[in-house]
Specification:
With 185 residues, the chain is mostly helical. The chain is built from eight helices and three strands, in the order H-H-E-E-E-H-H-H-H-H-H.
Amino acid sequence: MKDLSQRVAFLLALLSGQRCQTIGKLSIDNMTMEETKITFLIADKLKHSGPGVHQQPLVFMAYVADQKLCILTYLQEYLKRTSPVRGDNKQPLISFAETLYKPISTETISHWIKNFMTTAGVDTTQYKSPSTRAASTSHLASQQFDLKDILNAAGWSKEETFKRFYHFKDNNEFNFGSAIMNTLS
């Protein structure tokens, strides 16, 4: 359960380009599960929320090329395994300690991501959980995806930082998580 929990937290962060705070605000009540995608509406205010600025829904697409990398596979299994102990907890990620099974904090999400990165062989003295956000957005930028799509999907408000380093083309069929996974194959 520990490995599955950490893997789901890592994939949610990497494939959304979001902060741990956003991952902690996900709710099963605001989740739509379909055969090829899972969508989360973010109802709460976030760090980057403001007048007229709200996080767009997070859409996680199936990665059919390799089930071992598919967020839908892991998230569905995680929800199935935690369903008997979830109670009325609406946050998808809950503690795996048998006596708790409670929603976890942003700090715990960050800790899980860092632990997963360590297991994967990432040097966590240099890269921490926020590195998933920087790495995924920078990777897509290097693959020539539209800057506005990346910034909107990841909830970044200042495009000047990216504009100094990258040039982009238009892509109207953009999905952040799918774009990450498609660059791997």
